[in-house]
Specification:
This protein has helices spanning 52-56, 83-89, 106-116, 121-134, 150-162, 180-195, 208-211, 231-235, 238-243, 250-260, 272-280; strands spanning 4-16, 22-36, 41-45, 67-72, 75-76, 90-93, 168-172, 200-205, 216-221, 224-229. By secondary structure, the protein is an alpha/beta fold. Helix 6 (180-195) links the parallel strand 7 and strand 8. Helix 3 (106-116) packs parallel to helix 5 (150-162), helix 4 (121-134) crosses helix 5 (150-162) and helix 5 runs parallel beside helix 6. The longest helix is centred in the last third of the chain and has 16 residues, at 180-195.
């Protein structure tokens, strides 16, 4: 079994009208099967309302299935006795870093999680140093988080999760509130965690460019997984992605249009560099 597995996962929430009366049921996740291996870098794509954030919240038992099962490192997420262990196994990083940062100084904030876990003081400081180095924020350890840019704050939030030594990190739209340079910073840090620290990464996003670095991509629409494969396989399906209101990376779209115009280019070009290389050939 992989580090994270969902089998026929269904999640429904009750809709209420303005008076609080039950107005119906919405199925946000609809019979999803997912298998994530240790060391994977998975991207889950979809527009707003596709179910991807609801799915993410099942990965460390913030939400429980209406039907079906989710296992984290072999533990069923509805097993209350395992809740603490599940949340230590899978760390969550959310959209707004301001909601996750509570320390007056960067290193205090990163040490907060391990301290709550009862990690000995000497080891806490070792973890703080290694986590800040892993996300490229070590030189800011004595700064106030309030003085940091959005991208830097989000990297501190990620370091705070890494310091708890999870086997897996789920990032739920971690760059949605950042400018392009902040987005690049955060994705670079996430890639390093996966490449160097071998942490399993699940990235929930609607930015196609961020999914290029994943080794598997899942596309969600109306609560279902409608496509899966490598980035190259998924992004080759330009028209299908556009049908469900998703853009593809700019280089992929340009290569696709050039192909349609009669140029002999390979399918699924992902980056500007690949496109330049293919055109030069």
């Amino acid at each position: 079994m992989g580090i994270l597995q969902a089998k026929k996962l269904v999640f429904e929430y009750i809709r209420r009208d303005k008076d609080g009366n039950v107005d119906g049921v919405t199925r946000a996740v609809d019979e999803v099967d997912l298998d994530v291996e240790r060391g994977d870098f998975i991207a889950i794509l979809g527009h707003n309302g596709s179910g991807k954030s609801t799915l993410a919240k099942h990965m460390n038992a913030i939400l429980y299935p209406t039907e079906g099962t989710v296992w984290v490192d072999g533990m069923d997420t509805i097993d209350e006795e395992k809740l603490w262990e599940i949340r230590q196994t899978t760390g969550m990083v959310f959209q707004n870093p301001d909601n996750q940062i509570i320390g007056a100084m960067v290193e205090e904030d990163v040490g907060f999680g391990p301290e709550n876990m009862g990690v000995p003081t000497k080891e806490i400081w070792e973890r703080v140093d290694e986590s800040l180095k892993a996300v490229g924020m070590y030189e800011y350890r004595h700064h106030s988080p309030n003085k940091l840019s959005g991208g830097q704050k989000q990297r501190v939030a990620i370091a705070g999760v890494v310091a708890m030594h999870p086997k897996c990190i789920v990032l739920d739209e971690p760059t949605a509130m950042l400018d392009p340079s902040g987005r690049k910073e955060v994705i670079r840090a996430v890639r390093a965690l996966n490449d160097v620290e071998k942490i399993t990464v699940i990235l929930i996003t609607h930015y196609m460019e961020e999914a290029v670095y994943a080794n598997k991509v899942f596309v969600m629409d109306e609560g279902k997984i409608v496509m899966k494969g490598t980035p190259r396989e998924v992004f080759s399906r330009v028209e299908e992605l556009e049908e469900i209101r998703l853009d593809v990376p700019h280089a992929t779209k340009l290569a696709y249009e050039l192909q349609k115009a009669g140029l002999n280019l390979p399918d699924g070009i992902l980056t500007a560099e690949e496109l330049v290389e293919a055109l030069c050939r």
